[in-house]
Amino acid sequence: MIFIVLESKDCYFNLAAEEYLLRTRNDDIFMLWQNDNTIVVGKNQNTQSEINPEFVKENNINVVRRITGGGAVYHDSGNLNFSYITNTEGEWKRDFKAFTVPVVNALKKLRLSAECTGRNDITISGRKISGNAQTIIKNRILHHGTILFDSDMGVLSRALCPDNEKIKSKGIKSVSARVANISDFLERKITVSELIQRIRDEVFGSINDVKDYCLTEDDISEINALADSKYRTFEWNYGYSPKYNFRQKKYFESGTIEVYLDVSDGIITTAKIYGDFFGIRDVSELESALLGARHEYDALYNELKSFELYKYFAGVTIDELMKVLV
Q: Which DSSP state fits 119?
């Protein structure tokens, strides 16, 4: 069995590393890793309906889709992620405890009342500190989970705080849960490095043949290629989302603007703009410009910045208009 601690905090690289190791290695692998500020959405989710896009944009939060199901989660340097990659007979490990119990035991040795609850959670005193998910590719299983160590809960709550009324989607929705950091329950403070060591000791236990593994230059090159072709792309992170209908209404001093969009594969297929605003040009020109555009902040901003928007919406700036469009 091999043990890997990823040095990267690049979410696109790290998720690509999971998939690369899943597809190319035959070893049993246990890996620990962290991301910088990132929202990770489940494979079957609608990205726009899981995030607060304005807050995400303003705070430079990355958004990436993973290859496993389940709900959206927030990662930062106060969150530790673990991954198991191993062979299977083509069966789901429906009982996630085979993977979560070692983590629970490590937390118990820190005098924390951790337990496996439901199908895929770890909780302390009824509050969720870890969510888990799985996928299988060619008789290899990837099981991964989060451990909320000392995450910024203020950012987490605002980044994952979408307006559920504005997007009607058939994608899998996240289930709200009372989450907490394990640092809230610790009798003495520990570092992430100490937590990593304790989890490593518990996972490997009496296993004698454990090898620490560092990614080679070839590994890194292949992982970056996968990150560039998949995990860093709009098509994977947003375009993979199920079809949805978007509706948003905002009130400005100069009038109300209401937007209706139909979106497929992340691309706007229908656009209508209504309101009691004043303008000397017909908004149908803007509606036409939105067709075929990506439903994503930067793409729409670039599409509209060449227009003299004051001629369509008197007294409304492009930054204000963007708050209606995403």
A: T
Token duo for residue 321: 């208009």
The tally of domains found in the chain comes to: 2
- Are residues 106 and 220 located together in one domain of the fold? yes
Burial class (CB in 10 A: 0-12, 13-18, 19+), 312: buried
With a CB cutoff of 8 Å and minimum separation 6, the contacts of 246 are: 48, 166, 167, 259, 260, 261, 262, 263, 295
Same domain, 234 and 249: no
Residue 251 and residue 213 share a domain: no
pLDDT digits (tens, 9 = 90+) for 57-69: 999 999 999 999 8
Same domain for 277 and 163, yes or no, is no
| pLDDT tens-digit readout, 88-127 | 875 555 668 889 999 999 999 999 999 998 778 899 998 9
Helix (H), strand (E) at residue 143: strand 140-148
